[in-house]
Design a protein that fits this description.
single chain, 259 residues, alpha/beta, TIM Barrel, aldehyde-lyase activity, metal-binding, Aldolase/citrate-lyase_domain
């Protein structure tokens, strides 16, 4: 049997889940942050050099850790969805969803006929190469579909998007949302933050939870207070860049003090 999708269960139960965005595209660095105890890690394919093989390697390694891996695809494509589901991905984040029709197409791609259009293969990593006999009948129970809302239209039509049956939740992209609203590089603009604040209540009305990527700890606290349940505490590349800058900056100051 496959282990339960703990992220899907937690979101259904309105439990807070803290995670990290992984864009370094390397199983070694991903394993380092996995050991910190995050509830979930997202392997990003949209803004990183991750590919099919690097994601597979990271999934294999993460199987040893008590967390749920998610994968953000570079775009929605039913064949890509099929390939990654067959590879064992169970939590998918699909970028820039702007309508209920898009959300319905995404859900359809994750379900076998007659509930959907997912292609059927007898043996693949997800069904342990055919050893899980009832995989096709039960797969949807562990698949978590998260639609990413990152535009003004996504916000405008969010009520109908999050209401789609089979959408387990949404994930908000503040940077793209700000750009779409005319505030490029200003995710903390009051208009952007007001839009972000409205979304958890809309999701809750449909019995669903949503997530967001936070830029700093103050954002984390504010988003949790606003009702976000799945919060990303930055990214692996951000952590590395910040730590590298900090230690070098501190030591440069010390060197100056010696002159």
């Amino acid at each position: 049997m496959l282990k339960p999708n703990t992220l899907k269960i937690a979101l259904h139960n309105k439990q807070i889940q803290l995670g990290l965005w992984c864009a370094l595209s390397n199983s070694y660095s991903t394993e380092i942050v996995a050991g910190s105890g995050y509830d979930w890690l997202t392997l990003d394919m949209e803004h990183s050099p991750n590919d099919l093989n690097s994601v597979l390697t990271q999934l294999q390694m993460l199987g040893a850790y008590p967390l749920e891996p998610a994968v953000r695809l570079v775009k929605f494509d039913k064949d890509l969805v099929k390939q990654y589901l067959d590879m064992g991905v169970r939590t998918l984040i699909l970028p820039n969803v702007e309508s209920a029709d898009q959300a319905k197409e995404i859900v359809q791609a994750t379900r076998y006929p007659h509930q959907g259009i997912r292609g059927v293969a007898g043996q693949h990593r997800a069904n342990r190469w055919g050893r899980i006999a009832d995989y096709a009948q039960t797969a949807s129970e562990q698949i978590c579909v998260l639609v990413q809302i990152e535009s003004a239209d996504g916000v405008k039509f969010f009520d109908s998007i999050i209401a789609v049956d089979g959408v387990d939740g949404a994930f908000i992209g503040p940077n793209d949302m700000a750009a779409s609203m005319g505030f490029l590089g200003q995710q903390h603009h009051p208009d952007v933050q007001r839009a972000i604040q409205t979304l958890p209540g809309i999701a809750a009305k449909h019995g669903k939870s949503i997530g967001i990527l936070a830029a700093n700890e103050a954002d984390v606290q504010r988003y949790l207070e606003w009702g976000y349940k799945m919060v990303g505490l930055g990214s692996d590349q951000g952590l590395l860049a910040k730590a590298s800058d900090t230690i070098l900056g501190n030591c440069r100051q010390f060197v100056k003090s010696l002159k």
